[in-house]
Amino acid sequence: MPLFQKTVLSNHLRYLPKEEVEKAWQVFSAFFHDPQIQKNIEKTREEQYQGEFLIDLFVNVFGYIKQPTENFNLTTEFKNLTNQKKADGAILKNGKAIAVIELKDTRTLDLRKVEQQAFGYKMNQPNCNYVITSNFEKLRFYIDNTVNFEEFNLFKLTRERFDVLFLCLYHKNILSNLPKRIKDESIIQEEEITRKLYKDYSDFRNDIFENIVKNGIAPHLKKNFSNGSTPSKLDYFKKTQKLLDRFLFILFAEDRLLLPPNSIQTILENWVELKEKHELQIPLYERFKKYFSYIDKGHKGKNYSIFPYNGELFAQDELLDAVLIDDKILYGYAMKLSRYDYESEVSVTVLGHIFEHSLNELEEMQAVLEGKVVNKKTTKRKKDGVFYTPHYITKYILQNSVGNLCEDKKTELEFDKLVELKENATDKNQNLQTIEQKLIDYKNWLLQLTICDPACGSGAFLNEALEFLITEHAYIDEVYQKIIGKPLNENEDYLQKFDASFDKSTFQYSMEETNELIDKLEENSKNNRKTIEEQILENNIFGVDINEESIEIAKLSLWLRTAQRGRKLVSLNKNIKCGNSLIDKTEIAAEKAFDWNKEFSTVFDGNNVTGFDAIVGNPPYGGKIPKNQTDYLLEKYAEFGLNSKLSDTYLVFYISCLNNLVRENGILSFIAPNTWRLVESGNDFRNYILSNFWLYKITSHSEKVFPDATVDVDSVFIKKINKQNKEETKKEKFIDITIGDIAKAEELKNKQLAGEKIEEEINLYQHSISQSKILQESVFNLYLTEKLYQLRDKIAEKSYFVKDFYSIKNGVKPYEKGKGTPPQSKEIVAEKPFTSTEKIDDTFLPLLGGSQFHRYNLVWDNDYWIKYGEWLAAPRDKAIFDEKEKLVFRQTSDSIIGHYLYNGFIVRNNIHIIMKNSKSVLSLKCLLAILNSRLLDFYYFTINPEKGEALAEVKLYHLGLLPFPKNIQDKEQILSDCTDKMLELHKEFKEKKNRFVRRVQQNFSIKKITRNIESFYDYDFMDFVKELRKQKIILTAFQQDEYEEYFNVYKTQINQLQKEINEIDLKIDNIVFDLYQIDKEEIDSWEAIISK
């Protein structure tokens, strides 16, 4: 997809310096368009020409100064900051790379293969925004990431495209960061267009719907309306949406010259003229219905002709054709929508967002019409678990799934040797025939590839698959033309022969008879001479969704992407269908039951074809489905790991698709929640995946891919191995792992360097690990390398485990409806009479919650109490709380936070408790020191990798799996003493801090104790004075003299306490390292990974 929004780009092109552009064009075209020079470049190897290429293009055309000339801003062989690798070139500003250049020769036919290498260089240059790749003939220009780019064919570049190249590469523009600013402006413009257009789009639908409901069937058409029943509001609403789809198609079609330009405005103007000048009172909707018929069946008129595009979207619709719509309201909205430029302003991205918003409103409106109670917060996305997938994710998934299949096929056909085969030919004709056959074989293979999204929504993945395949066909056609020297398709589509003679201003062809074109185009269609786009839609792309409105919008989005002048719209009814992808039994799913074998018989024909080559998508999750369907799926898929604790719909999509829908050697790729990797109940499902398939790639997204979702997601790539291939099944399989923000890491980094405040710097962490190793594990922790697993295992071999030697309990649960004696009512749960922030009477006991302690530090302040007894929802055994000593651990945390507690406290259920029993071998104080240590923090992460996650939880069973050394030697007492000292120091620290803060609050009547006041000891006195000033407390110079000494005394004392705490922490860590014979540098490397 292009880098820039068309309107924004046009505005900037308008202000290019004309004389400089013209001068650059003359130099550029004289060199790069010279046929002999082109032939010489094609014969030249990368290392022979790359330096001269930089001069020929960047210096001579775009004005750069190349090293070693003084004040140079262009250099070759630019070294990475972190290793010895070098980019072929770099554009410099103040000596730092702002653009890296990676060059190959023309034997590199696919520039996509250069992306990874080039962006590897970029990641090593912190000031770099731009990446430029080229094979001397083609050039690609990227900003920040690989999602979008501009590509230029230097040998065939038009003057119009040269202006864009000049805008991107002219030295003044790059050095002033203009392309990046244009991209940012494009994003803002698209967001603004999306907001405005969707408001008009939504208002159109809602107001037209209300008008249709008010008017009903047109009186003069009631006798023709054969349906005996009265249409419902829901019927009218669905027809309103179809009407809007028709208008949207026309608006796109006329701006892309599939229909006469400004056709809607022309209809409006003609209607006004008929009414005002000729006093003909024809309903406006009748004029539009006639135009719909033209688009459906075709029209040959005096002034223009319309090709018959499709009988699916514009076919006669009895109810829609019969409704009555007021002229005023239809005129107003048709005029308003027609004012947008659908060729330059409204991109595919804008369209995707509009369709996504539309699905939310459609679901809400349908619920109202069906008499259901609507929760405004529970839109279609949340209720059905549907979340719109961003473009960079759909592209990433297609590239690494279908892209992998394509690369495997190219490897099989030895594509990397095609140029070499031609150059080293002893029998040139024979070799050309071999090359030609390989290219044709690949083309034919592409044409039979099948890709399916089983929960396609508004069609994001289907459109991405379409885009991917179109690009791949264009690539193979270009390679064929380049090597063989002629077009791959000798019988080109007839329409292309007329395009050169098409007059955009008159919407006419410069032929004797326009109608001759229409006749020949119709004949062309009848003879089944199809474009690549048509073949892809008919043969390669399939989609299913449970929501009818999603299916209709998905179809429309595909039509808008592929519609061509003079070609019928492809019928999508055979490939894009509505149904329940997971259930084929009507007694369970009623009319939505979906039989894949029946609905897609060409894919499941029982002979050579037994499934899809690739299944991609964002399956719904977290949605509510009827209980009878849940029970059915649990029973059907129990043997594959589905269970009552792990039964989300996304898991059913994994199982159903892998078992039934993907063919052998096919690929499944979903973006879905990561819970299956991490929870105990996911063990059987993990074993099912890892034992039967090859999970060849998994990417954990650290960014919030879906802002409305509450779970973290992975992109997962699974290959269904042919089990009959013994060699393949025996082969060791490795999983490529990536953790981070795949699209925005560099963008955030650049913003940070520009001075913007960024919460954290995001980097990519990548490694590979054996699948058989993961199969042995209780969870799938993406961070752990083979080396870290060895470290974990080394610790485990020398350890006992807490669960085998200590008792582990949960705290009390105060409230839950229906629990307790007597059972708690809804009012009891709401009013919470058994807990209080103050001691009401002697029946109330101290209550400790998870936030009221830290490591070795109790922060409870007589502010939490409970009336303990059987009336609580889960009171537990009182003996737990009467125990003389115990360890308590916070539940809501991404690490181990433990504290030593004497009796006297009731403990809440967001705390876990460890107590001694008859098997215990260490004192609780010694055990606490070990469990709070750095080494145990690492070990805990190996069993529960939730570091940094907002909803991270330490489970009861996690505590049981924590180790302590078998051979404690003589260190038990030392560690116990360390715990005593830590408890003492933290208590003193808290008392001194609280005393200072209390004095300040009392003396200055501070209303709010800010975080900076709370941690005053980390600041200088004048910083403290500034903090008081924020609360309008001004200290005079004499007051500052008086309080500065007091401030410094407490600051010094508290900092000394903190120093002693840190020293004992370090002492404990070193003792634990020594007990396990672990080098702390090994833990340093792990912490460095996690900190990213």
Going across the major beta sheet, what is the strand order?
A: 13-12-9-14-15-17-16-18-19
| CATH class placement of the largest domain | Alpha Beta
Question: What does the main sheet amount to?
Answer: 9 strands, mixed
- What do we call the CATH homologous superfamily of the largest domain? Vaccinia Virus protein VP39
Strand fraction band?
Answer: 5-15%
Secondary structure category: alpha+beta
- Measured as a percent range, the helix fraction is 40-55%
CATH topology of the largest domain: Rossmann fold
Ends distance: 30 Å
| Poorly predicted runs of 5 or more residues | 378-386, 748-758
> Tally the helices: what do you get?
45
Whole-angstrom Rg: 35 Å
Secondary structure layout:
Elements: H1 6-13, H2 18-32, H3 35-43, H4 46-59, E1 74-79, E2 86-93, E3 96-103, H5 115-123, E4 130-134, E5 138-143, E6 145-153, H6 159-169, H7 171-175, H8 178-215, H9 233-255, H10 263-276, H11 284-297, E7 299-300, E8 305-306, H12 318-322, H13 327-338, H14 348-369, H15 380-383, H16 391-400, H17 402-412, H18 418-423, H19 428-447, E9 451-453, H20 460-484, H21 496-499, E10 502-503, E11 508-509, H22 514-526, H23 532-539, E12 541-545, H24 548-562, E13 576-578, H25 586-589, H26 596-599, E14 612-617, H27 627-636, H28 649-661, E15 662-673, H29 675-678, H30 683-692, E16 694-701, E17 713-719, H31 726-730, E18 734-740, H32 745-753, E19 765-770, H33 771-775, H34 786-797, E20 799-801, H35 802-805, E21 806-810, H36 826-831, E22 835-836, E23 844-848, E24 853-854, E25 857-858, E26 865-867, H37 878-882, E27 885-890, E28 898-902, E29 906-907, E30 911-916, H38 924-931, H39 934-943, H40 956-960, E31 963-965, H41 972-1004, H42 1011-1014, H43 1021-1030, H44 1037-1076, H45 1080-1091
Parallel strand pairs: 3-4, 9-12, 9-14, 12-13, 14-15, 16-18, 23-29
Antiparallel strand pairs: 1-2, 2-3, 4-5, 5-6, 7-8, 10-11, 15-17, 16-17, 18-19, 20-31, 21-30, 22-26, 23-26, 24-25, 27-28, 27-30
Helix pairs in contact: 1-8, 8-9, 8-13, 8-14, 9-24, 14-24, 16-20, 19-20, 20-23, 20-24, 38-41, 41-44
